[in-house]
Amino acid sequence: MKIGIVSTGVYIPQHFQTAAEISAASGIPQEIIETKMGFSRKPLPGPEDHTCQMGIWAAQKALEKGNVDPKDIDLVIYIGEEHKEYPLWTAGIKLQEAVGAVNAWAFDVQQRCGTMVMALKIAKDMMTADPDVNTVLLAGGYRNSDFIDYTNPRTRFMYNLAAGGGAVILKKGHEQNELLASHIITDGSFSEDVAVVAGGTKNPITAEAIENRLNYLDVMDPEGMKQRLEQKSMQNFTRVIERALEKSGYGNEDLDYLAILHMKRSAHDYVLKHFGLTDDQTYYLSEYGHIGQIDQILSLELGLESGRIQPGHIVGLVSAGIGYAWDSCIIRWG
């Protein structure tokens, strides 16, 4: 039984922060931000752009585009960030109610910026195993830009963090845009390298913690992480894509389009070169920055709008999340 993508939805806030503004805040030359870091601007959340709410708006777009009745949805999976409207709150149930999926049940999943690609595998596996799960909505939002301290040089590789929402609707028996195989790698040796230090059970929020800016993202061992990550990161990026292609019955040469997260230009180009892809076979998100787990859906939509994705194309989605996780899945488009 084929499982296909019926539709997608993306929500982008209207306010953007420019490379010039980030340069002024961080002291990094604007040219470096635009060329090496690879973005000229990025969306930031407005007053009403809450995390789950951005997922709701993206889900409503997907429902409208796919002409899907919310009452036909069997399962809602929230793929947005844990940083959301309230702590200790199941956002998927709110999202279910907001879109009118009254016959569904819901839960949240999380793997940082790998969440959407991971959740596509979870959804497909559940749909394959459970005869009662035929239509699934995956949706959520992201605004981890809230945790960036531009005066902290240890986190400069995350200065591209932005905000937005994304959604995907999957349907069993849908003949178009077939979701094929996935592959995921996680490496726990990086699990405590990057975190918001204060706010959990180890380091509760206190006035002193806020004064010391421990309520922002930080890198505990930047040099050690860099050395260890350089040995594995690109290898795992290419590995998950290759294995997902292999499991889907394809080789590297069959890949027509790669929906890849936003990362520095040199790393992006390395992955393209490895698979023999050109700039016209992907979409570099230089005007969006990194919207976490929303990047792949945004790239998919931009690829379709620009004509870079055509019927019959083999499309790869690839993500990475701090912790560290690398995820890929393959879609036969059309």
TrEMBL record:
SUPFAM superfamilies: Thiolase-like. Residues 107-188 form the Beta-ketoacyl-[acyl-carrier-protein] synthase III N-terminal domain. Keywords: Acyltransferase, Transferase. Signal peptide: none annotated. Gene3D superfamilies: 3.40.47.10. The keyword Cytoplasm does not apply. Transmembrane segments: none annotated. GO terms for biological process: fatty acid biosynthetic process; secondary metabolite biosynthetic process. It comes from Tumebacillus flagellatus. The keyword Nucleotide-binding does not apply. GO terms for molecular function: 3-oxoacyl-[acyl-carrier-protein] synthase activity. This is 3-oxoacyl-ACP synthase. Residues 245-333 form the Beta-ketoacyl-[acyl-carrier-protein] synthase III C-terminal domain.
